[in-house]
Every structure is written in structure tokens, then in C-alpha cells.
Design brief:
By secondary structure, the chain is an alpha/beta fold. Helices cover 46% and strands 15% of the residues. It contains nine helices and seven strands; from the N terminus they run H-H-H-E-E-H-E-H-E-H-E-H-E-E-H-H. The radius of gyration is 18 Å and the shape is globular.
Length: 243
């Protein structure tokens, strides 16, 4: 319980004490939005690394050589834990934003930081708003920001990590419409930090593996039609190698 209290205190303390920083970053965005994003990412990555360290999380990264140099991509990963996001932001070297559920907008300060680090808010029940989020994602890709999605739509609680939930086919539209590479990502060990024994936080070794990127339009016709299922199969194969 001590780790949970410490992590929660750090998160709440950071958010409450960051009001002044957020105001300064808002002013900076008016004159230099690119610098604002870079500074926001630096701060968020710093606090995420601290949280991982306090939680007792160690991380092994595999496949960094697969990431296209200087080119934005769509990261597609399995989803087991809130800690997936911390691991993602602290291992990807370039600008990055996650697709999050729209309900996250209701949290003061947290939502502001999410906007600053290029998160997109998705309303799964509103088709019009969903299309708007896709268009926003495409615009971010065009200006060099990579996007990370979890096509399962929610955290997967299956005991067998290889039993992924069905991937939502429309979730890869950002890559289909922008033409950016898709990078499959397999993460293991994050559920063992928190979700498997809520409310306790326990040390865990996490492995994140970046797979070989692919371009959707270069796939065979059948795989292009069901690109979600195609990517899901790749990630399952990656997870099997980690077990």
C-alpha cells in the first residue's frame, strides 16, 4: 500500500502544483507552439520516469531499430494497464500522443497536460466526433507527431496475455488515410504493477517490443480489408515470443 500512496501523492501533487507551469506553457503556445509541445513532453516524461521508478518498474525495450527515423508513425499496441502509457511515453524518442477516451477531459490539469502532449480524445459512441478525432490525428501525423492507439478499446483483463480483445477495424484509419507506417507494439508486465492486485502497486519487469513497421496500402487486399485483425495477429505472435 505504501507504493500506491506514494505514487498517488506524486501524481496529485504534480497536477496541483503545475497550474503555474500550465499557464506559462499556454502563453508560450501563442508564440511558439512547437517549443511548448517539446517542453511539455520533457516535463511529462520526467514525471513518468519518476513514477515508474517509485513503483519499482524496470523496463526492457526491444526493436527500437525498427522505428523509422525522423518519420511519424501509428503505434498499435495491446492494452493491459494504465502503466502502458507511462512506458510508451518514456520509450518512444520522438513526439508522441495517445488516443484516450473522451471522459478524460473531465479531470482538471490532467486534461490540460494531455492536450499539451498531443493526446486525442475519442467519443466511441458518437460517429461524428470519432471522425473528428481521426482527422485531428491525421493532422498531427502530417506535422510530425506519432500517435499511439489501443484498438482493443479498453484494458484487457484476460488472464492469458495472448487472448487479445477484438481490434476495432476503424481504429487504424489514421494510418490508412495519412499513409504513415504502422508499428505493432507488444507490452508485457504492466498489469502486474497495479491492475492484477488493485489497490496495491508492486514492482514488475516490463518488456516493450516494437515490431516491424508496415504500410497499409502495401498489404495484400484481404489484409487491407481487415487490417485490425492483421495487426492483432502480429501482436499475438510477438507476445507468444515473450512468454
Amino acid at each position: 500500500m505504501f507504493r500506491f500512496i506514494l505514487v498517488a501523492t506524486l501524481v496529485i501533487g504534480f497536477l496541483v502544483c503545475s497550474a503555474g507551469t500550465l499557464h506559462r506553457l499556454k502563453k508560450l503556445a501563442e508564440t511558439d507552439p512547437n517549443r511548448m509541445e517539446e517542453e511539455s513532453l520533457r516535463i511529462v516524461r520526467k514525471i513518468f520516469r519518476l513514477l515508474l521508478r517509485v513503483a519499482g518498474v524496470t523496463v526492457t525495450v526491444k526493436g527500437l531499430e525498427n522505428l523509422p527515423k525522423g518519420k511519424p508513425v501509428l503505434y498499435v499496441g495491446n492494452h493491459r494497464s494504465y502503466f502502458d502509457i507511462l512506458v510508451g511515453y518514456t520509450t518512444v524518442p520522438e513526439k508522441l500522443g495517445f488516443v484516450a477516451k473522451k471522459e478524460m477531459r473531465r479531470y482538471p490539469f490532467l486534461a490540460d497536460w494531455m492536450v499539451n502532449v498531443n493526446c486525442l480524445f475519442l467519443d466511441r459512441k458518437n460517429i461524428k466526433e470519432g471522425l473528428k478525432a481521426i482527422l485531428e490525428g491525421i493532422e498531427k501525423i502530417k506535422r510530425g507527431v506519432s500517435i499511439w492507439i489501443f484498438p482493443e478499446g479498453t484494458r484487457n483483463r484476460n488472464e492469458d496475455i495472448r487472448e487479445l480483445l477484438p481490434f476495432k477495424e476503424g481504429s487504424l484509419k489514421i494510418a490508412e488515410k495519412s499513409g504513415c507506417p504502422v508499428v505493432p507494439v507488444a507490452i508485457t508486465g504492466t498489469a502486474e504493477v497495479f491492475e492484477k492486485h488493485i489497490p496495491f502497486i508492486r514492482p514488475s519487469h516490463v518488456t516493450i517490443q516494437f515490431g516491424t513497421p508496415f504500410i497499409i496500402k502495401e498489404l495484400p487486399a484481404e489484409d487491407r480489408k481487415f487490417v485490425g485483425a492483421y495487426t492483432r495477429k502480429i501482436i499475438i505472435e510477438m507476445l507468444e515470443k515473450e512468454i
